[in-house]
Design brief:
671 residues; alpha+beta; Glutathione S-transferase Yfyf (Class Pi), Chain A, domain 2; Neurolysin, domain 3; five-stranded mixed beta sheet; globular; protease; Pept_M3A_M3B; EC 3.4.24.70
Amino acid sequence: MLNIGFRIPFDQIRPEHAESAVDTLLAQAEAKLEHLAAAGERGFSDFMHDLDTLTEQLGTVTTVVHHLDAVVNSPEWTAAKLAILPKVSEFHTKLGLHPGLWAALKAYAETEDARALDPVRARHLKLTIEIFRREGADLQDEGRERLLALNTRLARVTSDFGKNVLDATAAFELYVGEERLGGVPQRVLDATRQDARERGRDGHRLTLHQPVTTPLMTYADDRELRREIWQAQQQVGKQPGRDNRPLVGEILKLRREKAKLLGFANFADYVLQDRMAGSGEAALTFERELEARTRPAYERENEELEAFYRQQAGTDAPALEAWDVTYWAEKQRQAEYDFDEEALRPYFPMDRVLSGLFEITRRVFGVSVSEAQAPGWHPEVRYYDIHDGDGTHVASFYTDWFPRDTKRAGAWMNGLVTGGPRQNGVEPHLGLMCGNMTPPGPNAPALLSIREVETVFHEFGHLLHHALSRVPVRSLSGTRVAWDFVELPSQIMENWVMERDALDLFARHHQTGEALPQDLFEKMVAARNYRAANTAMRQYSFGLTDLTLHVEYDPQGSADPIALARETMTRFAPYPLPADYSMVAAFSHLFSNPVGYGAGYYSYKWAEVLDADAFSRFATEGIFNAETGRAFVDSVLSRGNGEDPAALYREFMGRDPDADALLRRSGLLPA
């Protein structure tokens, strides 16, 4: 693993390679660190540049280990990850607290060389000094030791949290006969039957993977089965031996102590100081204002669903429960719009979706994507190259789209290698996209839901942000931007999925080649904002739960964070939550990383405001307008964190964002 190069030999990397490689790289990095901390006047290239690239190879190897633990999980990979976690965490903490390096950094900032830096390198110096201060460079000996202990413990306990979620999800299976699967789409019947056969069992194997649970909760007529699956989901994070509830309290306590040690009132203020929101209170205000403006429509939607349910099921039918709402909401949508999202799937085979996405990217952003060859970590992995308009190879990336029991849930993009402008030309970037989409059936390709199509476009937006970066400083490149700005490139890509001209490039029936019928397209668009207020309130519930725990909850007090999270989420649930509801104990976004989305889940809505507003320029000037696309590349995708994100947004739009754009797009304000 020491010389993994650009085309990473994933087929040769083994868990036993990890610790020795990291030990060697840590020793090299520590030697370089001492050299950087030595006295003597130096310029940017032999000080700031070397500091910028100090942990580059170590970071790539660490990312690869964490990635493989997430996609081909095994006891050996988990052990390898846990072996390197404390060592890497300790080094990064020591790096930020090294008195000699901190003195050298401050000394360099006073030199003529530093005062003459171009704007991007000057920003790098400024942000580096701020990061050192935020990470405790001014702490004295006792404080430094305590911060090291906090960081090391946080790395371990958040890793345990994520592993518990992964293991609990993988452990669940339920075998049922077809008679219990009335209403469930045929593709799900085929996939779950095949899954059972591969394990030597009859019937259908049901799991907690999203391509199974979502259609079950949406379409299964068997109410008891829906209840069983919903309750199984609620057990994730609180089973004996995998109980995350105590870990939530410990993580919150460690984060609060770390924030206070570094001079912040709470973890949210610590995290958000260098983001667009600026503080925990500002983020809370943002979410609560959106909630207040959305709640009237939310309550109206729920009253309409209740009336529809009573009309269909009878006035004496049982009250709607958590396992009923999605099912009856889909019935209501079908009745109101004569539209079933399942009717779209035959028009979204994965390969066509990708080819359409790549064609849209060529037309709008002027770059081409072509499949290439490189070793992967699983037979389903694919590899692609990206070239810009003049044929320069600017990036490559891997894809891994389908669920496995050894793969964590969700969808994500990671950067593996950061390239960009160099003295001898342009070095390519390397990244990956992973998901848990509907897999191919025995006799059919992978047919995606409209939500899964949006997810593919979303992750590719992140990938483009990484791949098209032209920032010469590694730590300012690509997606290394303020967290509440990072979702703009990903979320804006989703807009093309609802445009007829874009869909015509790829939405064709997998058997007949027929284009998506106009009446089906119109129904899809008409139904787009169906229960939009409920969708928004669900996101607010996550963001406000996150912020409540990281701003208002006192880890030193007697309150139970699990109960507080339930109390917060109750305001946003159109059904009663059980007394032991503890979804937060499975909330990996918040708690499976020392920082992750902790105190930052509001970023999704923040960036939705930006993307809804920014896409209005494409809507006005043309969704395939290459000049508009080039402007977005030049102002956003290529610039990374080379300038303040608010300034980059103003450069593209000519003004600050219009917060009403999101509510208008969602149908919650008049167009």
